[in-house]
Specification:
The structure is a homodimer. Helices cover 49% and strands 6% of the residues of chain A. Chain A is elongated, with a radius of gyration of 18 Å. The first copy, chain A, is built from 5 helices and 2 strands. The structure holds a DNA duplex.
Chain lengths: 134, 134
DNA sequence: TTTAAAGTCTACTAAAACAGTATACAAACA
DNA sequence: TGTTTGTATACTGTTTTAGTAGACTTTAAA
């Protein structure tokens, strides 16, 4: 029941770019040093963020990354889902075949977990990166 | 960001015992079959529940397990914590040394995650096993 | 008082996930 | 045209998860 290290790194990388402003390019090396994130690992995380359209990348000399979206429009939930996929508190909640009792909808515990999962998603969606800028 | 299979099994085992009533003994084999849980694995989970005092065990022939506590007093949070320990949404929230920026208390993101963590704990604590008895 | 059926304790193992690295490649600017 | 940047793919070591195994202990009934 925890977020991965990669997600935590992504939070910090996005916040770093948000502080520079939308469209302001910074190279991975600089962010890696400032935020104490292994560079190759950070590059890997950035590829997901680029693919998702949250960040844009610039290749070649003087390349780097810049925020593509207003920080106020980027939530913690967005980043979590980009990096590690949708949150699933219990495996039964994704795929009924994962419930070895095949009782997903009849099981009150699973209904409770579904509610908790929704609550977590909602909470994560309440925080956007504009709020984290000092 | 999900609960382990062991926790899910524990939920179902506790619910099974709750349906029998406090003090009503059932052997692991029966529960294993009814809830489709590997028996040896279930035995291992039960040891934690026994140690925590939620369940009492009876050894020897005609032994088994029985709920030791009123189901209304057992919450989802209790079981999660017994089986997999306290929930920590982000590793920084347990140990500041885990934050490679050493910024746990100054970091607004981590403060947000701390709030979400508390929310999850509170939600889990709102559900008790009496509520799940039809 | 023996024996069979229960749980206990410790250790082991296979598979998946996590965290990070490496190597080769492509683009861009100077 | 060469150096600096990101891209793509694949590899690797460690930890966690999920489950299994074997030897042992307890208990009740025959």
């Amino acid at each position: 029941m925890k977020l991965s290290q990669a997600t935590d790194y992504a939070f910090r990388a996005i916040l770093y770019l948000a502080r520079q402003g939308v469209g302001e390019k910074v190279d991975a090396q600089t962010i890696s040093e400032a935020e104490v994130i292994p560079k190759r690992f950070l590059l890997k995380i950035f590829r997901k963020l680029v693919q998702a359209g949250v960040v844009e990348s610039y290749r070649g000399k003087y390349g780097g990354y810049a925020l593509a979206v207003d920080p106020a429009k980027i939530t913690l939930k967005d980043i979590v889902e980009i990096v590690e996929g949708k949150i699933t508190v219990n495996r039964c909640l994704i795929d009924p075949d994962e419930c070895n009792k095949r009782a997903t909808n009849r099981c009150k515990i699973h209904n409770a977990l579904a509610e908790i999962q929704q609550e977590v998603n909602q909470k994560l969606a309440e925080y956007n990166f504009a709020q984290f800028l000092d």
